[in-house]
Structures
1.
Amino acid sequence: MSDREEEKPQPDAEEASASSDQTETSNPESSSAALPTSSPQFYELGEGTVIEAGSMMQNAEEISIGRGVFVRSGAWFNICTPVTGERPKLIVGDGCQFNFRVSVSAANRIVLERFSTYGHQTYISDTNHEYRNIGIPVVMQGITDTDGETIVGEGTWVGANCSICGPLRIGRGSVIGANSVVTRNIPDYSVAVGAPARVVKMFDTDAADWIAVRRSEEIETVLRRRREHPVMTICIPTYNRATDLARCLGTIFHQIGECTLIEVLVSDNASPDQTQDVLKSYAEAYPNANFRYWRNEENIGAERNILKLMDEARGDYVMLHGDDDFFVDMTIMPLFNIVHRNRNSSVIFIDVLNNSHAVETFEGLDAFIRKASIHSGFISSIIIERDLYRQIEDKSLFIGSGFNHIYLQLEAVRRKPQFTVVNESVFAYAGNKPDGYNFAKYFIEGYLSILSHNRQFGLSEEAIKHEKGSMLATTVLPWYKRIVEEELGSDLTGFEEIYTAHYKDEPYYEQILEWIRGIQPSQPKDSQ
């Protein structure tokens, strides 16, 4: 917080006001009237937005309103400095809601981030009136500054009859109690009440819950703990993919901003390209984010690079993430919420092949193999409890298999049997060719060796036998066919021999071997 003065204890009644007399959220479809079509042109006006009749949009050419916004009647949105139309001075994010008679007046820049909600008769401004010129009426003295900005974070709830007098920033996910007057910065995930508004509650990562805070020292302690002990760390191993990495980080920081509850780590495996420039640019763009990165002096291999990241992670849960996988918008924070609500789980597996949006809980090694299968080798699907990872005696036991990270997940599940499956397609992909490894050595030999190792820890013969057939049908054979037909360049040396070594006793062995031998590269159209 910008104000370091000691926080005075607030009476319980004030804290209670944060949860009472709040905005009445509304369904835009219930609106009986919208802004007339003859209204002035906005800088931008998103689809599905409803602005009820009786609202005033002053100098709308410098007002940008996103999609699905709902503005009740009596609203007054105003640009109070000379208008050129070159840029928006008032930016309203997607999904924001404004109750009756909300007033917003922008001199330079007000950003109301998406899904923030405002109670009736709330007033927001990025400047104040000058008053210090003795002998001149205040109304003639103008405003104090025209270069500040007021930002209200994503998902924040502002109660009824509040005043937000900037320049200042209110963090994401915060609650401003009814009748409060905000004159200074409010951190993310805080409850603030009173006039002037003071922070009385914050989400604390050590407690994994909201706790009361009264003094500035307590607030600073919570902020420090968030940075040192975040809820989740996103770990990104990268090598020589600067363009993909830039897009990957863009999809992350667009959604989390500088929220320190989520740490982002990147380990550059001695890339010869512009990877370090990309990382530096994001560090400069988000200086207050919980973001760390480094460059290894030499390439230590992908699997050891993953371990290095997990060793450095400070989050309660560690999410591995590929540098060429890109989060779909509005997926990280819901996933973060799932992680927080499923702290009894050792592993959270994201099944990107099932988009039912169901969140399911299971127990045991057999269940994990049946639910996650070889798809748990897709690193962007993996979230592991950090403390369980640190209990693993030999974290590098299956380095060289291509799937050491599957071994780590099974080690976590055997120590703490409960795990969670999130069925959602949360990524877009660069589509880079799978090369740099022997396909059969990883997808058959390496994976099955990890399953065999877990016999001693209770993984049943039935589960292994079922998985041998399942992973062959769902992953190995379809990818083999694609690699051959599309000539993707993956190393298929010894594929038949490795397949035979592991499947010769299976009843379908001969039939599959014949199918394998029948796969041929597709012929170019002009040669057919």
2.
Amino acid sequence: MGDIIRLLPDSVANQIAAGEVIQRPASAVKELLENSVDAGATKIQLIVADAGKTLIQVIDNGKGMSENDARMCFERHATSKIQSADQLFALTTKGFRGEAMASIAAVAQVEMKSRTEENQIGIQINTAGSKITKQEPCQAPVGTSISIKNLFFNVPARRNFLKSNQVETRHIMDEFMRVALAHTSVEMSLHHDNDEIFHLRPGKLRQRIVDLFGKGYNEKLVPISEETSIAKIEGFVGKPEFARKRRGEQFFFVNDRFIRSPYLNHAISSAYDELLAQKTYPAYFIFFTVEPSFIDINIHPTKTEIKFEDEKSIYAILRSATRQSLGKYNISPTIDFNQEMSLNFSAPPKNVQLYQPELPVSSGTSYGAKGAHSAAITRTRDEGWQKPSDGDWQKLYEGLPQETPIQQEITTVQSKLSVDDETVKRPMQIHGKYILSSIKSGTIIIDQKRAHERIVYEQIVQSLALQQAPKQQHLFPINIELSSADSKTLSGILDDVQLLGMDIEPFGKNTFIVQGLATYINEKNVKEVIDEILEEYNESGSLTASKKMDKLAQAMARRSSIDYGKVLQPEEMTQLIDELFACDLPYSAPSGKPTMITMTLDELEKRFG
């Protein structure tokens, strides 16, 4: 048998490496932005067309590259960041592997222009599929401009796996925001299809957060700060009342590098114990400063996962710092065990004159007429103590019940036992969650939220079939402000949202105005409904258009349905039951979970033995 193991051609090896590093347009954006930061840039521009499939361009004013460096950066494992393995545990830069530019060049057409401050003339290099097609001097400002055109032009299978433009654009914006949050001293801008999405001026972290996620975030944040021998922690956590139904603005940075860590996320969640509603998530922007030798960032090609030398201590410090911050700003409930609550009186106003009470003493028993007589004593500011004359004591008993408490209880029970059959058949609510209703064969227990979800979902589906949802116009329109990322996503699906039952239009940058709503949408829940739709849309990027619309309809039904804990009147429960059984599929919610369970008389009799 002959030899069968051979070295791969460089072009094939580069494409394989590109598959690990450049998974989508956002991956290329991340690598280019981090290279600009490592180059010492104070101004970075990101220009994107067609969600990065046609063009990704990053322009910076960093230190630039010489002609030789410009050519070497396209070689695999060529880097200026490290020279030995020991330096892997003392990294202060974003990049270090020397794979980014080689991987990008393997799957795209790249044009680079760069100039250093020492040179009067810059260098231009063009590549396509790892091959240099052009290299010549050019006029260029100090810094580097890299244009990536027709990403995955030579790997059509990879290009076919890309999601919709809205989804890919959202991933690009996520990468941009991560770099922008970690480097608030850098001026950064993002243009997409000739629209300016962000223009961020240098400033402090709080201002950068507000610029990225909207003005409303200023009041939602609580600062967090802790410094130990293991790590320094700074940043902000969100107030519990602003927690959202989706994991949106949650960021960890270690030495200004964005990371993902479910373990540390659990530390934050546990610090919010008993402060959050079920299935809601707080925002946080946490920055760790750790000695580089205490962490290992070379465990994943995308460098978004790191290993701490003492992860348990980091967990404990983060949880404690978060809890302390919430308590310091009177968000976390506290109990003073040194104070007797029964003695916790508020001081009277200064202009109120205090009088010592004069209690009359009776020689007889304190009960009966004299006791009632004493209790009836009143006082006014101008008149001294007043008491009714002894001859009026009968008036004290006017209006009092003639029956004893025991007699009243017997009367109440008798009245309950004499109710008519119609009253017994009325539905009954249990714990603000379930509706109990009798049927001929026994009884049914209905989950009120799931039942309403099914009702609203079928109303939405019917509206989609008619291509028009019945809307009620509002006298006072509702303004909704979103982050730039959410605004971009919503703008791309406005037609779908309007079909779902919202008369909504853009109203300035990152602001939308809602003129009317379908009858099944509560006006108070508009923002939550939009958040749910955006979350569902971002998660369903790979689905077909019809499947995606169905997911959006389910999301709207979830947020538009009544919540657990809402007290319903008998008439409301009856209407809910009638509408549920008028549905095509009344026995399950859109999620597939049951809306009701039935207990027959036979089952009840077996339970009682």
3.
Amino acid sequence: MAPPLLLLQEIHLALGTTRLLAGATLSVGAGERLVLVGRNGSGKSTLLKVAAGMLQPEKGTRFLQPGATLRYLPQEPDLAGYDSVLAYVEEGLTSGDDPHRAHWLLDQLGLTGEEDPARLSGGEARRAALARALAPKPDILLLDEPTNHLDLPAIAWLEQELRQMRGALVTISHDRRFLETLSRAMVWLDRGTTRRLEQGFSKFEEWRDKILEEEEMEAHKLDRQIVREEHWMRYGVTARRKRNVRRVGELAGLRQRRREALSATGNVRMVASEAEGGGSVVMKAESVTKAYGDQPAVVRDFSTRILRRDRVGIVGPNGAGKTTLLNLLTGVLAPDEGRVQLGTSLAMVTLDQKRESLDPNMTLSAVLTGGHGDQVDVGGQRRHVIGYMKDFLFQPDQARTSVGVLSGGERGRLMLARAMATPSNLLVLDEPTNDLDLETLDLLEELLNDYTGTVLVVSHDRDFLDRVCTSVIVAEGDGAWQEYAGGYSDMVAQRGRGVEAKATAEAPVAQRGEQRAATPAAPPPPAKSRLNFKQQHALASLPGQMQKLEAEIAQVQQALASPGLYERDRARFERFTAALTAKQDELAKAEEAWLELELLREEAEG
């Protein structure tokens, strides 16, 4: 076996009083495709900085093969001190690199190189940093959240570019679809140490859940008391994922309703006689058009009707007008032509992308309570702020922590907690998945599925759109917008292609080529097939079986929770333990079978 290009062994490192790494190991071989995963705050970015040679560990060794080139993409690129974007990118080149590659990469990423770094948006700064990291064709490429602030065409282009590179790749990302595309092995950082799985991301969550279930069972066997908040934050992962799987059926029902609504209204042009009592219609747009000055219309002749409990995604390339459309639908912006009618008693809560509405000097407790007392009103019920914080994976001792010291993922969680504690029937989410780890994404999906109001979401996360949305409104170009029932994948299947880069008259030939490369031709849809009798019977009977298994599992867990059972009757404890494991396995298999059949049914019904 060839020696690794990069090797970290027994890395120990603490930041302040927090120990992040306690014996972590990372081995990167030539051409490997590794994904580094773990909860927010677990030390993923710290370990990547150690791998890049930017941080020195307190203990442990770092070995980099002599002559191997390594490049690192930070979460927040710093372009200060450079006269132009091109100067920033070219500084990453070595004497043997092709200088024309910097120009080519910038062109592919929609930049000229002449931009002033001080005036770049978050997405433009990320594109410039990607060009700098990719320009020398490094032997090892370390990427920390590379898809943050990128639009869908840029993400698709990046996937293609990384698939073609010959060097090794280590990535931190929350984008499930991106990880599934690129990963061949997983490194899980948990409680300061690492575990490795020699399979891609599609197998990771099942593998992780099995390890957590075994740990939880072992804790019961040893009769140790697990701290409640730690139990929820770590071992609750499996339960949350299974609940989300069971909600696929409910989401399918909502999508079917949305499909019927779109079909019934044709081009979604409403008539005044429609029954809209009871607040069922949240907003209605009729032939809405909006332009700025003499520029072409950003939104042209768009109509839709959004009902209570709809979850509508808005997608398109940067500059397509997603924010304009969102502001038109919510009444923030008046249309030039057409009209928008909002439902009665609308209470809207907005989650902004930049988390700018958080005061960095306030404590977590003050943000959630408004600075008054220690109670939070959630869904008409009064709850203690500490208990509510635990629901969003915060530790009790963080109640007095200032917002300014929180990580990006923690600020995202806090914004979610505050939004959910604010009485509303309309949630407007602008890139809600930025900086969130996989566990928090599961939590967000669970919260949105339980939410009884309506959700409008702008997102570039394809997997998130698939798991949450009942319909997707996509930019078709020249101010045209079209709504498709279902999630992002459903939209691609109906439309025949994904989201392309925004075409302009000034766009260079290479950029237009990027559009074609970033969105490969969709394969022909598979032939639809009906469920046979056996499959139909299983689909109908499995929910009852799962409900029965859940009740039986609850009974066994209650018996195992009996104080001192292990000391009184060890044989009985072991029988209960074995029974619990068997029933949990049976439930997992039933859920997997039901989900597969439900997906087949939905595909067969179009």
